[in-house]
Amino acid sequence: MPYSDFFTKLGLFAAKDFFDEKLCARLRREAHSGKSAVGTVWKIGSTDFVTDETLKRRSETILSPQTLALVEERLLALMPEIAIHFNVTLTGCQMPRAVRYSEGDFYRTHADSSTLADAPEEVKERQVSIVIFLNDEDDEPGSDSYCGGGLTFYGLVDDPAWKAFGLPLIGERGLLIAFRPDIVHEVKPITHGERYTVTTWFF
After folding, report:
1. Residue 70: which H helix or E strand, with range?
2. Are 129 and 122 in contact (CB under 8 A)?
3. Distance of alpha carbon 167 from its chain centroid, rounded?
4. 18: closest CA among 184, 187, 171, 192?
5. How many structural domains comprise the chain?
6. CA Rg, the chain, in Å?
């Protein structure tokens, strides 16, 4: 599976070690022990977010005020560089959340934005998707890593023969990956351990 450098050649943005180990550990602890809820999705035909564990199964945690302020400060400092990379005007970010995928959890193929009239404003305003990995993906089980759970992108190669072929990114602790929210992607099922990330969207 390819690392982030490969995806930057296909138009994505990557910042390695965006979070150091200390902050990653702090966020993992909050995601593991904080108040969490089942992840929700927006489905065509609905006007709000709903729970559908056939499409998305994971837990999401609202960060403590102190941690949230720190994460938002780091993200907003990077926002001008992200805006230049994607040639868009950005004014802020939606509230970052810590996300935990346990064994068997997944997120089926989807896009993060929509232009449909009945989509929630939160979905329509998204211009850049952000995922920050808090632990490593590995082929072998480990205490601080996970197996499976590949963030897999579709349609990055402008060739009809590649349209249905997914390219999985290897998750690395501290890595920030940014991409346009209309890119179809998925998170493959976790086969061992727990996968921790922070997700948000610039608007």
Report:
1. helix 65-86
2. no
3. 15
4. 171
5. 1
6. 16
CATH of the domain at 125: 2.60.120.620
Tokens of 88: 């868009």
DSSP bridge partners of 153: 167, 185
Question: Are the C-beta atoms of 120 and 194 separated by less than 8 Å?
Answer: no
User: One digit per residue, pLDDT tens: the chain, 203 residues?
Assistant: 789 999 999 999 999 999 999 999 999 999 999 889 999 999 887 878 999 999 999 999 999 999 999 999 999 999 999 999 999 999 999 999 999 999 999 999 999 999 999 999 999 999 999 999 999 999 998 888 999 999 999 999 988 878 789 999 999 999 999 999 999 999 999 999 999 999 999 99
- For the chain, the distance separating the N- and C-terminal CA atoms, rounded to the nearest angstrom, is 30
The pTM for the full model equals: 0.96
Domain of 48, in residue numbers: 4-202
Q: Give me the amino acid identity at 136.
A: D
CA dihedral over 78, 14, 131, 17, signed as positive or negative: negative
User: In this structure, are residues 101 and 135 in contact, taking their beta carbons and an 8 Å threshold?
Assistant: no
The residue count of the chain comes to: 203
